[in-house]
Amino acid sequence: MGKVFDGVDDRNADFIRSQRVFFVATAPLTADGHVNLSPKGLEGLVIVDPHTVAYLDFIGSGIETVSHLRENGRIALMFCAFEGPPRILRLHGRGTVIEPGEAAWEAWSGRFPACRHARAVVRVAVERVADSCGYGVPRYEFRGDRSQLFEWAERKDDAALERYRREFNANSLDGLPGLRNV
User: What is the DSSP letter of 172?
Assistant: First the structure.
């Protein structure tokens, strides 16, 4: 039986920190828009307080999450136990995008290791925390993080990364605005 919590308490925080991957879901307001579900990892999430989490958003080939948050702010994060006892934890809330060059960037990006291919920090005001059994989630063994994203970005100079952001991160699949500073 699932349970709803008042916020991210210590038990939930320990569970979140022990996961190697989490998933982020967003959607545009339009009924025919593309729902987005993105896996995240690379130890890029921090728990600020029981009602605030944030993660570092790395450069990528799409910008759906950022675009959807700019349009309507709705976001859900899901953590699944692939090892140990079965459990799923979902955080529902309102997300805010903080980009390099914005006034809050230094304060928020400073919570993470320095990363030149970070394109934003996504801050989530958590409105609902709920878990469920996770009995249907298979077991997987963690074998390590992938290095390709960092290696790809390290082969690019700053101008090449900026060109990539302009080409792939300015607008979503549905034409919603993405990154502002491209």
Answer: -
Query: Would you list the DSSP string of 31-97?
Result: TTSPPEEEEE-TT-EEEEETTEEEEEEEP-S--HHHHHHHHH-EEEEEEE-SSSS--EEEEEEEEEE
54: which 2 tokens? Answer: 């944030």
Q: Is the pLDDT of residue 104 over 90?
A: yes
Handedness of CA 94, 98, 99, 103 (dihedral sign): positive
Task: Give the integer Cα–Cα distance in Å for 141 and 139.
Answer: 7
Say how far apart CA 159 and CA 172 lie, in whole Å: 22
Beta-carbon contacts of residue 37 (< 8 Å; ≥ 6 apart): 23, 24, 25
Tell me: the pLDDT tens digits for 29-46?
999 999 999 999 867 899
pLDDT 10s digits, 164-176: 999 999 999 999 9
Residues in the chain: 182
**pTM more than 0.90:** yes
Rounded-to-10 torsion of CA 160, 163, 168, 170: 140
What are the structural domains, with CATH classification, of the chain?
A: 3-136+145-168 (2.30.110.10)
